[in-house]
Design brief:
The structure holds two protein chains of two kinds.
Chain A: H1 3-18, H2 20-23, E1 30-33, E2 36-38, H3 40-50, H4 56-61, E3 66-70, H5 115-151, E4 157-159, H6 160-183, H7 187-219, E5 224-226, H8 229-242, H9 245-255, H10 261-287, H11 291-298, H12 303-340, H13 351-360, H14 365-391
Antiparallel strand pairs in A: 1-2, 1-3, 4-5
Chain B: H1 9-14, H2 27-39, E1 49-53, H3 66-79, H4 82-102, H5 109-120, H6 125-138, H7 141-144, H8 148-161, E2 172-176, H9 182-191, H10 205-240, H11 244-259, H12 262-273, H13 288-297, H14 302-336, H15 339-346, H16 351-364, H17 368-389, H18 394-403, H19 407-435
Antiparallel strand pairs in B: 1-2
Helix pairs in contact in B: 3-4, 4-5, 4-8, 5-6, 6-8, 10-14, 10-17, 11-14, 12-14, 12-17, 14-16, 14-17, 15-16, 17-18, 17-19, 18-19
The chains are: A mainly alpha, B mainly alpha.
């Protein structure tokens, strides 16, 4: 796919997602109520960003009083029900409208909702899902993969005392959490215990440890143990690979009642982090043997510095490729779920939920074609963006060869 | 895992809307619920052992009613006296069981039903004290005399009301339950072929899966076959052809096919090619409702069955074809840069011999690993395909069970899916080792 087309699709997508409220809205862009100028469509965006209650109901009540109205290009919101055009009006056929300004350019669904408005607002859902889930998956996957790749099974060594103390404190903490949840008493208990365990950690780290270390080395027990990070990561990835991902999604979504965009993204990212971890681990495995890492170690740079400042910049290109493909697979997952009717609630319009309606009524080809085209275009452009980055990979390890 | 899921399986199976929601529940419904509860084995502990604070018991699963379980737990936490709370509860239960008939004779029945009601919802020391006081005040002793259980209730109730929680109630305690636990029974059931019961219609999970697995396996098998039968030649063609025009066109098509969402493709095919809405010739394939009718009857012959499966198989294979073709092209291009290919050309071998005798075997064997990667996709894809085409296979069953909150079926299918995936990966590994002597697993 040519690069300019990819870029064009990306920009259109970003644009519609950012300005969805101004592109398709039954509230006017600007109008006068009682001589005062209002900007209802912009107020709606503002209220969404700041988390205030929507001004929609207020303005819909003042519909008669509006003067000198400037409407959005598509004068419908995705949830606007146009009763005059209910029952699947084709984009090509006659529509029951007062002027061409109010035409449903891509037709309507069974309830009379505008398809184009749904498409525009669906692009926002797709963007949020794609970015949020990829970012969450990257946060976990890249960190875990970097640690596993850099430290392997043996390089992160901890004193046996530290391991014993850490395990003990972790166990006590988990038990206290369980106790708190089971008892259901006041949070006072938990905070008290947190305080106590913090004190325990402090004691353990300072005085007790040195004394015990001395005592143990007197007994001839001293030494360190490698934490098998790599082993743990590989086993975890295997577990995630064993179950078909759609099944995991279905089962998790059935447990969570009425998931929102945030829950949905987190669930999808739960399935995606192993991919990021795998790529990052592979990259770190090969990069950590390079001379510049040895040089940094000779210079006694800290491990944090070596991981994040020396190796990570070179590992970014493959991670970016994985991120581009991740966005497309997240959108695909979300739309598949919405299509199956398992994702969001019915009010939340997304491309998949619009396709779901096409299944109910075969004659409405416009419901099947347009949202599908949107998903297809976005996935295609994300895939070719990934290919593009991987071809441009001149800053990565190839530079070193 | 099944225990964190909302919803009470016994409630679902008996068809009772809510045991706790209704104040004056039907005694018959309650008995029915209790019987189902025990039949499903919900009265057993969850796992082989449990860790719990010393103040409470390991589990209260022998008590059928969730609200009473909660009350007893709260009482135990509040008093820290496990045995005392247990005896109090047992005494109260014995009382309400023994005496309800006996007391009809001396018109104290109203009092006792009231007592039972209060007893069932006492979850704190104060409430227990209140009940004990009432029992002493209003007991119609002069008419009926004392029932032995009454003394027990009053005695234990007083003890609870005055009990002090001992220090160290939070000390963890390990209880061992042995093999009489739900997990063990579930596991043993799976290995002995007893998969439990569907919570929606009470049929056994095994028979439900047996009925549906055939459809899914046949669709998956044929689409896997089609994937490799089309994808491999396509990839080889893309890698070796000299005709630029075809190559670019095909490559674009493959690229697009790779990005098409499966469910969209299937919906489009169903919308356009199963009805006569868009012209006479478009009614090529049976519509999903026809498929459902005939698969329900089970009288579809082989060729008819094939015609039903054609569209689903095509859809499911499409993404795989693109994937395999792209992989094949890449490996073939990588191999064609090797020296043995140049050597074969130098020896004067024809292009056909070079490509098919020397290039092809080396290029195709990495694809064996794709077998392992494709199987999870097939299983996931079968959900979408079977829902759209109304095929009563495993994917459809999964979908229905999730909507019906039929967890026994859902977990069985998840389990099978995981096993199929593992088997696919294992097969891929073994085949890979057989095909390439360089690979050795230690």
């Amino acid at each position: 796919m040519p690069t300019y087309l990819t870029m064009a699709i990306c920009f259109i997508w970003l644009f519609t997602a950012l300005f969805a409220d101004q592109l398709a809205n039954e509230l006017p862009l600007t109008c006068k109520i009682d001589g005062q100028r209002h900007f209802p469509a912009f107020r709606e965006t503002f209220s969404k960003v700041t988390g205030q209650s929507s001004p929609r109901i207020y303005y819909l009540g003042k519909k008669e009083k509006m003067e000198s109205v400037v409407r959005a290009p598509i004068p419908y919101s995705p949830q606007t029900i146009d009763r005059a055009n209910a029952g699947y009006k084709s984009p090509l056929g006659p529509q029951n409208i007062s002027s061409q300004r109010y035409r449903h350019w891509l037709g309507t669904d069974g309830m009379g909702r505008d398809v184009l408005a749904g498409l525009i607002h669906g692009s926002r859902v797709a963007l949020i899902i794609g970015l949020l889930s990829v970012m969450a998956a990257m946060l976990v996957g890249v960190l875990f993969g970097a640690a596993a790749g850099f430290f392997g099974d043996q390089r992160w060594r901890l004193n046996i005392l530290e391991i014993a103390g850490g395990t003990m404190i972790l166990t006590v903490g988990l038990y206290l959490l369980y106790l708190q949840l089971d008892y259901g008493g006041s949070w006072l208990y938990l905070s008290g215990w947190l305080l106590a365990s913090t004190a325990l950690v402090y004691l353990w780290s300072s005085t007790v440890k040195t004394r015990m270390r001395a005592a143990l080395s007197g007994l001839g027990i001293s030494g360190t143990m490698g934490i098998p990070l790599d082993l743990i990561l590989l086993r975890l990835i295997e577990i995630f690979r064993a179950v078909p991902s759609l099944f995991i999604l279905l089962a998790l979504l059935a447990i969570i009642e009425s998931p929102g965009i945030l829950e949905m993204s987190l669930i999808i990212s739960l399935l995606m982090w192993p991919a990021f971890a795998r790529y990052t681990r592979a990259e770190f495995l090969s990069l950590r043997e390079q001379e510049f890492v040895q040089a940094a170690q000779l210079l006694r740079r800290s491990k944090n510095y070596i991981i994040f400042r020396e190796i990570m910049p070179l590992a970014i290109p493959p991670i970016a490729v994985a991120a581009a493909f991740g966005v497309s697979s997240a959108i695909l997952a979300e739309s598949t779920l919405s299509f199956l009717g398992i994702g969001f609630s019915a009010e939340q319009v997304s491309w998949g939920s619009m396709l779901n309606e096409a299944r109910l009524y075969f004659r409405a080809w416009w419901l099947a074609v347009f949202p599908g085209m949107a998903i297809f275009a976005v996935i295609l452009s994300m895939n070719s963006l990934g290919d593009y980055i991987s071809k441009q990979k001149t800053t990565g390890i190839k530079m070193l060869d | 895992m099944s225990k964190i899921i909302p919803g009470d399986p016994a409630e679902r199976l008996t068809g009772i809307l809510s045991i706790e929601g209704d104040e004056h529940f039907d005694r018959g419904a309650m008995t029915n619920y209790q019987r189902t509860y025990r039949h499903l084995g919900l009265d057993r502990p969850l796992f082989y052992f449990s860790i719990h604070p010393r103040a409470r018991e390991a589990h209260f699963r022998d008590i059928e009613r969730p609200a009473i379980r909660k009350n007893i737990k709260q009482l135990m936490y509040e008093t820290g006296q496990v045995d005392l709370v247990r005896s109090y509860f047992e005494a109260g239960k014995a009382l309400s069981r023994d005496i309800q008939f006996q007391l009809y004779e001396c018109d104290a029945a109203v009092f006792w039903s009231d007592f039972e009601h209060q007893f069932n919802r006492a979850g704190s020391k104060a409430a227990v004290a209140e009940i004990t006081k009432n029992a002493l005040l209003f007991m119609p002793a002069e008419k009926c005399g004392f029932h032995p259980s009454v003394k027990d209730v009053v005695k234990y109730g007083n003890e609870i009301a005055s009990a002090e929680r001992p220090f160290g109630w939070w000390v963890p305690k390990l209880s061992w339950h042995g093999t009489q636990n739900q997990y063990h029974h579930w596991l043993a059931g799976i290995f002995s072929g007893d998969w439990g019961y569907s919570l929606r219609d009470g049929r056994s999970v095994g028979s439900k899966i047996r009925n549906s697995i055939g459809y899914t396996l046949s669709i998956s098998f044929f689409s896997l076959l089609l994937t490799f039968a089309v994808g491999i030649p396509l990839g080889m063609f893309l890698a070796t052809t000299k005709r630029k025009r075809y190559k670019e066109l095909l490559r674009t098509v493959v690229y697009a096919l790779y990005a098409v969402p499966l469910f969209w493709l299937a919906t489009l095919l169903v919308v356009f090619f199963t009805t006569e809405e868009y012209g006479k010739w478009t009614n090529l394939f049976p519509s999903p409702s026809q498929i459902m009718l005939h698969t329900m009857d089970g009288d579809a012959g082989f060729f008819q069955g094939m015609s039903y499966l054609l569209l689903p198989v095509l859809c499911l294979a499409s993404g795989g074809v693109a994937f395999v073709a792209r992989q094949m092209e890449q490996t073939a291009l990588r191999e064609s840069a090797s020296r043995y290919i140049a050597m074969s050309r130098l020896k004067g071998n024809s292009e056909v011999v070079t490509i098919w005798r020397h290039l092809f075997p080396n290029a195709v064997f990495p694809l064996i690993t794709l077998l392992g990667a494709l199987i999870p996709g097939l299983i996931s894809g079968s959900v979408v395909i079977e829902v759209i085409f109304n095929i009563p296979g495993m994917g459809r069953l999964m979908w229905d069970s999730i909507f019906g909150q039929d967890w026994n079926v859902v977990f069985a299918i998840l389990f099978i899916g995981a096993i199929l995936t593992l088997v696919g990966q294992l097969m891929a590994d073994i085949l890979y080792a057989r095909a390439n002597p360089k690979v050795r697993y230690d």
